[in-house]
Amino acid sequence: MSAARPVDSITTELRTIADLPRFDGFDRHDFGADFDWIADDLFRREYQGLLQHETHGVIVYRNDDLWALGTHPQVSHHSELSGVWDESVVAHQRFMAASTFSMQPPVHQPGKSIISKRLASVSMKRYMNFAADVVEELIRDSLQRDKTDFVHDFIKPLLARLWCHVLGLSSGEAARITELMNDFFRPFLLEPTEEDLAVANDASEEFVDLITDALTREMSNGRHAILNELARDYAEMGEVGRPKNICTHFGVALPDGFNTLGSMTANTLYTLLSNSAALAQVKADPDLVPEAWLEGQRLNPVVVATQRETLADIQHGGVVLPKGTQLSMLWAFGNRDPEVFEDPNAYQLHRASRGKQTTFGGGFYACPGRPSARLLGEVVLRALTAPGIDVTVLDGFVWATRSLAHEPEHMTLAIRNV
Predict the structure, then answer these.
(1) Within a domain: residue 187?
(2) Global pTM?
(3) What is the CATH classification number for the domain harbouring 81?
(4) Are 342 and 350 in contact (CB under 8 A)?
(5) Which of 111, 133, 283, 366 has its CA 20 to 30 A from that of 66?
């Protein structure tokens, strides 16, 4: 571990946001192509603490700052997202109004919990044998090709079939949702255009209608355990935090299940394949798969940052943060903090302080899908590092840039028997 952060005159004199040094990483044209250089720049500065950006507000990147502000009772999601369901608002606001991203305490916890329970390990683990069977089938298909687009030929079909099995979606519904996700996440671009936002808005509207209708239909027939349990939980809820429509509420948590979950798996596999010594260890000892998943998610998480807001005037690190201050929580760089992770840009299967990883956020607002992401990721890693299977990354791997979603634009693999 490195020595404790220096306390200098800048740290003790800072009193307002205007005094903070500027973060210019977002302004690079290649932001997202490689995070090593950004982490090195941030953590080698003499001043260590909150930064500022003209459009992204206060920048939070140190591990302890992320945990402190991420769990602060007066830091929450943006207040303008809160509100009741209103059919007159634009589609993306309509989506957010049904999402936990629109909630403030004390409303947040009951609405979040009803989703978290259904996506927890105890709930999702029962579907992993099915997922493993689909993965084996996809591997067999890949063996018949010279190359496989891992995102489009492997992960997206896997996720579509998984959610069809879990929730009763038709293949057509799952295929359409997969298509919509390409547009749905355009607001994650650092500088989305008006066209991007309009396209995302239309995708949001279609998705909300599609998933609400599909889950309402399937919940009524009683054939799917997860929906039966969701209906039971909803019936037992109190009035505080009770969603107006439980199918919509659960459904708007699923875009990550169709998109982010796939990107997580791709990122983790690519990171392992890029480290030959670790790959050899994992192939020799499958019990290391969980560590490989955790380390891949530490180095290359999908979500670079999320936005938070102060609900009241607070002070942190000697800086006054007035009510309504926009906070950009750079979770990806909390994973690169040298005070927590020794040699932070290096791939290491065995690491201390795993509990300090910030991949999924922290506090009440931590991602509810973490258990299901880990379960599925480990299924894929275990199958593709099994004896007799060789996986090679071919030319053409490209990270998406200028986005707060860290994911590959292309990931072409050769999957072969050996």
Answers:
(1) yes
(2) 0.92
(3) 1.10.630.10
(4) no
(5) 111
**Grouped pLDDT means (10 residues each) for the chain, 418 residues:** 39 76 94 94 95 96 97 81 42 72 76 94 97 98 96 96 98 97 93 92 94 98 97 95 93 94 96 97 98 98 94 94 96 98 97 95 86 97 97 90 93 96
Confirm if 219 and 230 have CB atoms less than 8 A apart.
yes
Question: What DSSP assignment string belongs to 226-283?
Answer: HHHHHHHHHHT--STT--S-HHHHHHTT-HHHHTHHHHHHHHHHHHHHT-HHHHHHHH
Classify strands 326-329 and 57-60 as parallel, antiparallel or unpaired.
Answer: parallel
Q: Structural domain of residue 296, as residue ranges? A: 9-417
State the total domains in the chain: 1
Q: Note whether residue 1 is domain-resident.
A: no
217: in domain = yes
Q: Characterize 44-69 residue by residue with b for buried, 16 or more Cβ atoms within 10 angstroms of its Cβ, and e for exposed.
A: eeeebbbbbbeebbbbbbbbebbbbb
∠ at Cα 65 (61, 69), nearest 5°? 110
| Cα–Cα dist 380/158, whole Å | 10
